[in-house]
């Protein structure tokens, strides 16, 4: 069995924060693989299911980011899991937005959620690091992570979450390398499938075909043309009637 943990803060006001991208990842996995409903368990919300024949428990701690280890530790002890059976999805300041890396063990890079998990277990769990970028200065970090993703981030965020969910069977099978390969291929494929932007058309190009063929095709143009033709015919007839009189005077 595997335990997939998404890190974030509970509550609607945090739902779209950059710090909550771990929650978003496990929620997308639950949707894609038809997991059961989310229920209160292990000081968080959990959902049971299978991914490619492997049992997986998804967990979103309700303990807030800095105390994530309380929920993860409780779940791991109850399920009798080794730390190597735990995969944690979290935001990563040190990666550009949309970049993805996986590692096991190592430092926590100042991430309070990871630090808490390490304190309650050990350090040998897998981490799926989802890049959110860095604001550029240390004093800006807190407001950066505790702020909604920008609208422009939707261009990469939703496709990335879809690709993570689709490649999740690789993580369930302990194949992090192929997980990253599958994600990269799917994102590249989606990029190739996008239609190139259509060139802007001039006002003449945007006009209906019959108008481009000539203004007389427009009803107003037709009426004007008919009036001009009628006037010309009337003038021609009037001149024809006057011509004999003019010639007798000569």
What is the CATH third-level topology name of the largest domain?
A: Rossmann fold
Overall average pLDDT: 85
First-last Cα distance? 119 Å
CATH-level-4 superfamily name of the largest domain: Peptidyl-tRNA hydrolase
Order of helices and strands: EHEEEHEEHEHHHHHH
- Which stretches are poorly predicted, pLDDT < 50 over at least 5 residues? 196-220, 245-250
- Roughly what percent helix? 40-55%
Any idea of the CATH class of the largest domain? Alpha Beta
Count of folded domains: 2
- Architecture (CATH level 2) name of the largest domain: 3-Layer(aba) Sandwich
Description:
This protein is of the alpha/beta class. It has two domains: 2-193, Rossmann fold (3-Layer(aba) Sandwich), CATH 3.40.50; 211-245. Helices cover 46% and strands 17% of the residues. The protein is built from nine helices and seven strands. The protein has a seven-stranded mixed beta sheet, sandwiched between helices. A hairpin with a 2-residue loop joins strand 2 and strand 3. Mean pLDDT is 85; it is low at 196-220 and 245-250.
Briefly summarize what is shown.
With 250 residues, this protein is α/β, with parallel strands linked by helices. The chain has 2 domains: 2-193, Peptidyl-tRNA hydrolase (Rossmann fold), CATH 3.40.50; 211-245. Helix content is 46%, strand content 17%.
Keywords:
Rossmann fold, 2 domains, 250 residues, alpha/beta
Topology of this protein?
Layout: E1 2-6, H1 21-32, E2 39-41, E3 44-51, E4 54-61, H2 68-79, E5 86-92, E6 100-104, H3 112-120, E7 126-131, H4 141-145, H5 154-172, H6 176-193, H7 203-206, H8 209-212, H9 219-249
Parallel strand pairs: 1-4, 1-5, 5-7
Antiparallel strand pairs: 2-3, 3-4, 6-7
Helix pairs in contact: 1-5, 2-3, 5-6
């Amino acid at each position: 069995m595997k335990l997939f943990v998404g890190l974030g803060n509970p509550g609607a006001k945090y739902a779209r924060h950059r710090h909550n991208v771990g929650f978003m990842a496990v929620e997308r996995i639950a949707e894609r693989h038809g997991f059961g409903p989310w229920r209160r368990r292990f000081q968080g919300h959990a959902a049971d299911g299978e991914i490619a024949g492997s049992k997986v428990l998804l967990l979103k701690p309700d303990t807030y980011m800095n105390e994530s280890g309380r929920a993860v530790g409780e779940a791991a002890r109850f399920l009798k899991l080794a730390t190597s059976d735990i995969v944690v999805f979290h935001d990563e300041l040190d990666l550009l937005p949309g970049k993805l890396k996986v590692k096991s063990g190592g430092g926590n890079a100042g991430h309070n959620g990871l630090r808490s998990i390490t304190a309650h277990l050990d350090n040998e769990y897998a981490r799926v690091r989802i890049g959110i970028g860095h604001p550029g200065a240390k004093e800006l970090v807190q407001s950066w992570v505790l702020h909604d993703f920008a609208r422009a981030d939707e261009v990469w965020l939703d496709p990335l979450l879809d690709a993570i969910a689709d490649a999740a069977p690789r993580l369930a099978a302990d194949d992090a390398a192929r997980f990253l390969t599958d994600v990269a291929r799917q994102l590249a494929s989606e990029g190739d499938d996008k239609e190139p932007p259509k060139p802007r058309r001039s006002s003449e190009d945007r006009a209906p075909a019959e108008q481009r063929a000539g203004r007389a095709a427009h009803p107003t143009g037709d009426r004007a043309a008919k009036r001009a033709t009628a006037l010309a015919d009337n003038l021609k007839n009037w001149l024809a009637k006057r011509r004999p009189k003019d010639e007798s005077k000569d």
